Amino acid sequence: MGGLIKGGNAFVPTVPLRVAVRGAVDVAALLLTERGRVRGDADIVFHGAPVHPSGTVRLVGGEEGTAWLEAGLTTIEEDVSRVLVVASTENGALRDVAGLSVEAFAPDGTSVARYDTTDAGGETAMVLAELYRRAGGWKFRAVGQGYLDGLEGLAVDHGVDVAEEPPAETRTPEHRAPAAEVPFQIPPPAPAPAPVLVPDDQDRTFGAVFQPREVSGRHNDVITEEGLPPGPVLVELAVEGEGYTGLWPLDRGNKKGDSLVNSTEDDFRGRLLTCVPENGRLRLRLEADRRWQMRILPLTAAQRLTEERLESNGPCVLLHTGGTADLVFHYRGKDNFIVHLYGLHELVAHRDPTVLPENRTYAVNEIGRLRETLPLPEGPIVVHMTDADGPWRARLKELRPRSGQPYDDGAPAKLPAPRATQAWLRWGRR
Fold it and tell me: Quick one: CATH architecture of 9-161+420-429?
């Protein structure tokens, strides 16, 4: 079979497949639910845990420079919808790996899908490909999604808990090691689906997907990003220290649009919602007194609401994809707490998806501490917290399945120590 280009996909036979990864890299597999998350540490197959507990996915030996994964597509558990094939480097970056490729073979040795990477850069970890369910069978997708922050970044994007318990002798009364000077950076977001791993075009519920864009600087600036898909996107912003933070989109005449941020909060953190114009050129005016970092992300990278509690500080964008539910907020700030709700058709399928709709629904518009419960209709719903200068918690209760669809709350399984996650991440850093 001819090789696939990046993003291409093809059906593969529903049989036990053998997957070869070439390039002398470290190889792992992640088993994901339909929410794009592992259920727990046991869903990571790597050198230190080469066989999944179900026995359906295993890492086996191979000739020099090639690692082999076996995936029994006929027996993989029903709540596993995707199997990611992951490569990482021990030293250097993936651009230094010669002949990096992934190829799937049927039991008779016939090649059924192949992907040769051609654009690897400074990443140290990459999702090379994925096997995913489609129309009662399985497909192979050439992914090529790299991570400059290595296995930890990849792990966080797929719901892996990367927290490591510090040794008892190093714990302070606050249950953490003594503080040390670290580079300023945006803290990793709570688990969320990987922004580029969408099985098929019709599944891109929340709009187009693209590689995240990252930019950083100091003080006031104008940020310009070209070649983005028109429509709603997330802007993840972190500003160091004290001072004012303001952010506005700029139109073609360089006039400011509606404010995205207007905050005096120290160490501002937030996820904001804006729209890319039809020309694919996003321009933002930032006012900040100190160092800052920004990421532009597809809307599908927003955190999903579940019955598990989410906690954060600052404005945010959340996605409700389940059935009818009650959304419980607990806000502990002193200033405005404003929440808008958008039905998906209002946001990405209305008359002009390159601007936010004017008929937004004010679900909450209060000042100071509050507890609030909002009844939500069946998703997909975008929950846009435009103002939240303080800590908040959110979770769903009375959650029901979507009409005609099985219900899966996506909660990670509780697995006993020792943590396989930490062994995997240490293996990637060795």
Answer: Sandwich (2.60)
Residue whose C-alpha is closest to residue 140's, from 11, 17, 19, 28? 11
* Domain layout of the chain by residue ranges: 9-161+420-429, 206-411
pTM above 0.70, yes or no: no
Alpha helices in 76-125 (DSSP H): none
Residue spans of alpha helices (H) in 286-400: 344-348
3-state secondary structure of 118: coil
Distance CA 12, CA 130 (A): 12
- The CA distance from 337 to 368, in Å, is 7
* Rounded CA separation 393/190 (Å): 13
Q: pLDDT (tens digit, 9 = 90+) per residue, 145-176? A: 999 888 988 988 898 877 654 444 444 433 33
- Cβ count within 10 A of residue 174: 8
Residue 361 has a pLDDT of: 60
Q: What order of strands is seen across the sheet that includes strand 261-263?
A: 221-225, 282-288, 245-249, 261-263
Confidence grade of residue 422 (pLDDT, cut at 50, 70, 90): low
pLDDT at 288: 93
